[in-house]
Design goal:
alpha/beta, binds iron/sulfur cluster, single chain, 17 helices, 414 residues
Length: 414
C-alpha cells in the first residue's frame, strides 16, 4: 500500500515515478484564490434542495430536517438562476443541476415542469442547464418516467445491493425494508430503457459480502455503481466503519475491482476515478477541486440560502461558521458572497488542512486533500489531514485500484 513504507517498494518504479511527478503544483496557482473571481470558475454542480423532506427514514441518513415539508418556490429558482447569470465569471457553458437532499420525488411532477421552464427562461440563452435527480427510487411511476424523458433528466438511484444488505438500513418510517419497491421500479426503468446509475452506501455489513454484492448488480444489469461509505456527518454521528475497518474495505474493493476488470459487467466510479488519477495526475485531481474552492459546487436550500464547498455542510449548525450559509439569493450576489469573511474563513482553513495533507500524506498527489465536510464532521475543523473517510475512500481505493490494475496488467510495469 502507498501508506505502508514496506509495500511502497512493491509498486513498480515506473508507476511510482508517474505518481510522484503529479505531486507538484505551483505556489502561484495557490495564491490566485479566492481574490481573483474568475479563478473560481466554473460552477461544476448546482445542487438544489427542492424540499428537506424525505418519505423514507434510512438509519444512516445525515439530513437533520427530513420531516420538514417546506418547498422551494419557483420564484426562488428564478432569482437563483438570475444571480448566477449575473456572475458569468463563475459559469461555464453548461450548468449541471442536481435535485437532491431530501427526496426530489416527494414534490409534484408539475413542479419540475414549471421549475425547469422558469430556470431556462432566466438564463436568457446564456448557459445550458442540464438536470439530474438523486432519488431513493421508491416513488418512481409512469408520470416520473415521462418527465425524465421529456426533460432528458439524468437519474441516480440509491440502492445498497442485495435485499439482505439494503434492508438493514434503507427503511420506511414504519421500519420496513424498501428493497422490493425499488427493484420493482428499477425493472420499470429497464423496460423503458431509461439509463441510471446507482449510489450505494457501504456499511460494515457490506464488507464481508463482496461476491454477493457484485453478483447482485451483475445479475440485474446495473452497470454503473458509485460507492459512498457510511460517513459521520450531520445527523449521522456514528458509523459502522472506523480506522480499524479500512483494511477490510481494501479487501472488499480488491475483490469487486478484480471481478469488474475481469468481466466488465459492473463499472465502479471509484476504480475509474483512481485509474484516471493515476493516468492523468494533476489534470484530473486538482488542489482546487469541486469541494475545495468557492463555488466549485453551489448548494441552494429551499429558502434560497447558498452554501458551497462540500454539499453536506448545508444544514450543519456552527457558531464559528455562521451555519455555513454564505448568503441568500434574495440579498446577495455571488461576487459579494465570494468576498464575505465567512467564505474566506472556510476557504483559508480548507487550504491549511490541505497543506497538512501535502506535508504528511503519501497519497497527496492522487488525492489533493480530501473532502472538507468529512474533516469538519470528524474533527470539528477543516484544518486537519487524515479522516476515517479518507482512510477508506481515498487510501484504500487507491491501494486497491493500484493492486488490481497491476494484477490485470493495466498499468505500465517494469
Ligand atoms: S485527505 Fe487523507 S488521503 Fe487525502 S491527502 Fe489528506 S490525509 Fe491524504
Amino acid at each position: 500500500m502507498i501508506g505502508d513504507k514496506a509495500e511502497v517498494l512493491t509498486i513498480s518504479t515506473t508507476l511510482k515515478t508517474v505518481i510522484d511527478s503529479f505531486a507538484l503544483e505551483s505556489e502561484s496557482a495557490r495564491n490566485i484564490l479566492p481574490n481573483n473571481f474568475k479563478a473560481t470558475r466554473p460552477v461544476e454542480l448546482l445542487i438544489i434542495q427542492p424540499t428537506p423532506f424525505c418519505n423514507i427514514n434510512c438509519r444512516y441518513c445525515y439530513l437533520p430536517d427530513r420531516t420538514n415539508k417546506e418547498r422551494i418556490s419557483i420564484e426562488t429558482l428564478a432569482v437563483l438562476t438570475e444571480r448566477l447569470i449575473a456572475a458569468p465569471e463563475i459559469l461555464g457553458e453548461i450548468l449541471p443541476v442536481s435535485w437532491h437532499a431530501g427526496e426530489p420525488m416527494t414534490m409534484p411532477v408539475a413542479f419540475y415542469d414549471a421549475a425547469i421552464q422558469a430556470m431556462h427562461n432566466s438564463t436568457y440563452g446564456k448557459v445550458k442547464i442540464t438536470h439530474s435527480f438523486q432519488t431513493n427510487g421508491t416513488l418512481l411511476n409512469d408520470n416520473w418516467l415521462e418527465l425524465i424523458t421529456r426533460h432528458k433528466i439524468r437519474l441516480g438511484v440509491s440502492l445498497d445491493g442485495p435485499e439482505f444488505i439494503h434492508d438493514l438500513n434503507r427503511i420506511t418510517r414504519g421500519g420496513k425494508g424498501t428493497h422490493a419497491t425499488i427493484m420493482k421500479n428499477i425493472k420499470i426503468l429497464n423496460e423503458n430503457r431509461i439509463p441510471f446509475n446507482v449510489i450505494t452506501v457501504v456499511t460494515h455489513a457490506t464488507l464481508c459480502k463482496p461476491d454477493e454484492f457484485y453478483d447482485f448488480f451483475s445479475e440485474y444489469g446495473i452497470k454503473r455503481v458509485a460507492l459512498n461509505i457510511e460517513e459521520i456527518e450531520l445527523h449521522n454521528n456514528e458509523s459502522s466503519l472506523s480506522y480499524q475497518t479500512s483494511k477490510l474495505y481494501y479487501n472488499f474493493l480488491c475483490r469487486i475491482f478484480s471481478r469488474s476488470l475481469k468481466d466488465g459487467s459492473v463499472q465502479f466510479r471509484e476504480l475509474n476515478s483512481a485509474r484516471s488519477a493515476i493516468t492523468f495526475g494533476e489534470d484530473f485531481v486538482s488542489r482546487y477541486g469541486q469541494q475545495t474552492r468557492p463555488f466549485g459546487i453551489v448548494t441552494c436550500d429551499y429558502q434560497g440560502n447558498i452554501f458551497s464547498f462540500s454539499p453536506e455542510l448545508a444544514g450543519a449548525k456552527s457558531e464559528a461558521y455562521s451555519d455555513f450559509i454564505l448568503g441568500n439569493v434574495y440579498n446577495d450576489d455571488f461576487k459579494s458572497m465570494l468576498n464575505f469573511s465567512i467564505t474566506q474563513k472556510i476557504f483559508q482553513e480548507i487550504q491549511s488542512g490541505i497543506d497538512r495533507c501535502e506535508s504528511t500524506c503519501e497519497y497527496y498527489s492522487l488525492c489533493r486533500g480530501g473532502t472538507p465536510a468529512n474533516k469538519y464532521f470528524e474533527h470539528g475543523t477543516f484544518d486537519v489531514a487524515e479522516t476515517i473517510y479518507c482512510n477508506h475512500s481515498r487510501k484504500a481505493v487507491i491501494d486497491a485500484a493500484l493492486h488490481e490494475l497491476e494484477q490485470h496488467h493495466l498499468v505500465i510495469t517494469q
